[in-house]
What does this fold into?
Amino acid sequence: MTNYVKFTNFTVKDSLPTGDTNKVIRGAEFDTEFDSIATAVATKSNSASPTFTGTATFDGITATGTVNLSGLSVTFSQLDAGAVTLSSETFSDVDNQIPTNAAVIDYVASAIPGIAEVNDLTAVVTWADVPDANITESSVTQHQAALSITASQLSDVTATATELNYVDGVTSNIQTQIDNINPSPIHTATASGTLANGDVVIVNSDGTVSAITGVTQSAGSDATYVNNGSRPTSTSVTYDTNENKVVVIYKDAGNSNYGTAIVGSVSGSTITFGTAVAFTSVGIGSTTSAVFDSSNNKVVISYINSSTGYGESIVGTVSGTSISFGTAVVFNSSATYNVRSVFDSTNNKVILYGTWTGSSLVYAIVGTVSGTSISFGTAVTVGVVTTNSLSIGFDSNAGAAVVTYRDGTSTQAKVATVSGTSISFGTATALLSGDYARWVVPIFDSSNNKMVIFYDNNSQNRAEVKVGTVSGTSITFGSAVDTGFDSVGADGYATGVFDSLRNKVVLAYTLQSPNGRYIVSGTVDGTNVTLDSPLSIGGYIAFLFSGSVFDPDSNKTIIAYVDDDTDTGEAFAFTTGFTTLTSENYIGISNAAYADTATATIQIVGSVDDAQSGLTAGQAYYVQNDGSLGTSASAPSVFAGTAVSATELIVKG
It folds into this structure.
């Protein structure tokens, strides 16, 4: 279909001037124009019943009647959605017109409710064609009658190899599940520390589990520090933390009663002594007291000069297993009857305490070490006392000393505070009212900041303990705790220290009934003390003139004493018993080896552990403090279980 194109611009010709030959319209120009018009007209379709040949392109069709597209192929994507309007058309299986989406939706929505569910199990069901999601518990229950199988229906069942393999697989899976059920009761928890297979296990307060750790209390062998045929007396002990050595002080009856010192090295539970050194050239009295000044790394020994009766102190320097001394200094130039001393680590002073001038007067004085000498302030009167209730201890938390003394028929306690070279005392508090205490031993518990005082109750003839709390310049006591011991022997002594590794007080004492020497450790809780089982050191050989000190390097308590049977000076190392086991926290035995923080399986009550050795079948076993198993109970008493073979134990508790 060709459009008409004009070839001659007649308007331009009109504008040309008269006489211009181009202004003339020629016949050829008319022919060209009319031929173009004829061609355009010949290639156009009529508006009435037009006929199109070739490819017809429509930019848009607007029809008021029916548009017949017979014989034409129409792609739906080429149809304008707005040109198809069939909102009134319905959709059916006989409709030959194009339905709208709305018509299809309306038809489906109206047709679905009319489809009835068919639950006919008489028809053959191909189960492979049924989706698994469509087989529900309710559908199976609904048709369980049809699924019931009688014995007669199984009489001639022939299974294929595939079907048998399936059954075997199901059976195997069931057996695996059964095998995975542990018939032995277990508990799983995070391990705190490593666990070995067969370890006895406790549960911690945070829910983790650990192997029991601990040691059994024990005493090493005696090491003799003097044996010259004469009984030594006036024993005291201190520990040089600079040289890591123990220093024993005594009155050497085999050498003119000279004051003598000897240095010992501790290795494990063995003590080895160097050569004894006399620090006086005159005899000394019945008491000595030695402390270590940690600010100057010096040993300070206080004693009574038998020649003058004066109280003196001397400074010693330890080097290896030997000790050397400066010049003695008098702290009381009148009759001195006994002396006690402590080191005030708050003020770096030495405090001396004892009965001077008269046997019924007690004094205290402050000493300051400088080089190999010591100087003193002015003595202060504490009260009217007798000697058998005297003691002094130092509370490093309060920065004050606690002294005890007998006042009439009662035993009193006071808090002493140092300022410069002066000392002052607070108000007295009765340690034992209406009676007096003998063999008083104050021990400061630095883990609980308590002053623990052991003493022998004179009228009750029983050993007791009280826990004191220092506040400012006063001290208060909890109730007396009966230790369960009979009276400490009149011809024996008691001595004690604090084990800072295991946070326990340690007391060595002699009993008249039952006769013998004992060591007991105890744990402070508030104002109460729980004592462990005493350790017997042997027969009735009193801890005469004894002294003790804690060695923080070997973590041992060193006890020096005079053996009244052999008249020798002896010393031994005591290991405080310690355990993480309580009467309640044992839960069972580790089922395997586990690393720290790993999830551990613990065989608990009712299970059978098979990782033991050397057991006797039928024998009851108890948990020991070190985590081992034994046939007798320790403290606390915890029943581990009963052996059923040499390697197996039924866990109980």
